[in-house]
Amino acid sequence: MNGQVSVSVFQALVLAIWIALIESRSLLGAATVALRFSPLMTGLIVGILFGDVTKAMEITAAIQLIYMGVFAPGGQMPAEPCIAAAISVPIALLSGMKPTAAIAIAVPVGLLGGYLYQFRLFLDSFVNKITEKGVEEVNKQKIFMGAIVVPIIVSLVLFIPFMFIALKFGAPVIASFVKNSVSTEIFHILSVIGGGLVSIGIATTIYVIGKKSYIPFFLSGYFIAVVCANAGLTMLTYAIFGALIASVFILVRSEASFKNGEE
């Protein structure tokens, strides 16, 4: 980057194609759903393109936390995490913004991406006529074209220009403004708001998939991570400890259920 606040044509184009393929919902089959719901892989692509994978993943991990509890009723999400990461992470990398402050940019970008995805579904409603006609005629080729090929083309035509323009021309402008104003109070406020949004994401996850009986495990993991923050432990170490504790818990429950069955 060499201190220059700019996005190259290659960087913008690759990211735009990546997002368009994800939003097509056909890239790698069902894996596309995970790529769309989680910004982590998009953050990795951004890090590789901008030459700073470590910083990109730190920013993306913070963004991921606010979308942990987001789900898609009926297939539609209130925001598009992958689009949020594709634009906010480059801005943060170019401007030196803190991960928590980048969250405040990711949220409105993700919401705008959600509206764009809804427009894509609106366009697909016209494409469905091809599929319906193929079903009426029992024509496999028309069904394939209407259900797979044409929706992918619509996604490419819609998302590539939008993402390219946003990344090539929009991201540098925002990053330049942030870089020149990073010492002002507004970015301290953004960091505070970003930290609050992270807690909301975690709370939503607990509410959606959590059980009261499992909350002690969550709190134990959190406080162990805080206490051992300076111990130099890696995520792999935490994962091994977590797997061992989960194995013991499952074993105890299995034996208890077996004894109750015998009685």
TrEMBL record:
The keyword Metal-binding does not apply. It is a multi-pass membrane protein. InterPro entries: PTS_IIC_man (IPR004700). It is found in: Cell membrane. Keywords: Cell membrane, Membrane, Phosphotransferase system, Sugar transport, Transmembrane, Transmembrane helix, Transport. The chain crosses the membrane at residues 79-97, 103-123, 143-166, 186-210, 222-252. The keyword Cell membrane applies. This is PTS sugar transporter subunit IIC. It comes from Lactobacillus kullabergensis. The lineage of its organism: Bacteria, Bacillati, Bacillota, Bacilli, Lactobacillales.
